[in-house]
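User: Could you check the structure of this?
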Amino acid sequence: MSRRIGRNRIPPRAVQSDMANTLSTDLGVMRTVAASTDARNDEIRAMLQAFIGRMGSVPRSVWGGIAAARFKDVVDRWNAESTRLYHALHTIAETIRHNEAALSEAGEEHARRIAAAGGNV
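Assistant: Sure, the predicted structure tokens are below.
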């Protein structure tokens, strides 16, 4: 049974550890989650940019004096936070990809060592 995180389904044992201290990882799930994170990141960024675009197109005659200054402050903070969110999600996706590659390489190296040890038996 999968659990749902946002729009993504995560298998219950994508990464699991059992009593013998072994680690089992579904590398395909890791790649899928990284790609989904990128896709959601792009969707969120587009949505936020569209919203700011709509708000920025409000005629200056609507925003005057203190209201205009406060609106500009809010937009500046919004843009800064939007950029931080974008970079955080990008870093998460990159970290997942890096970990997937490292685990894949470790698995291949482990298999090579087992094969080499088996050849000596």
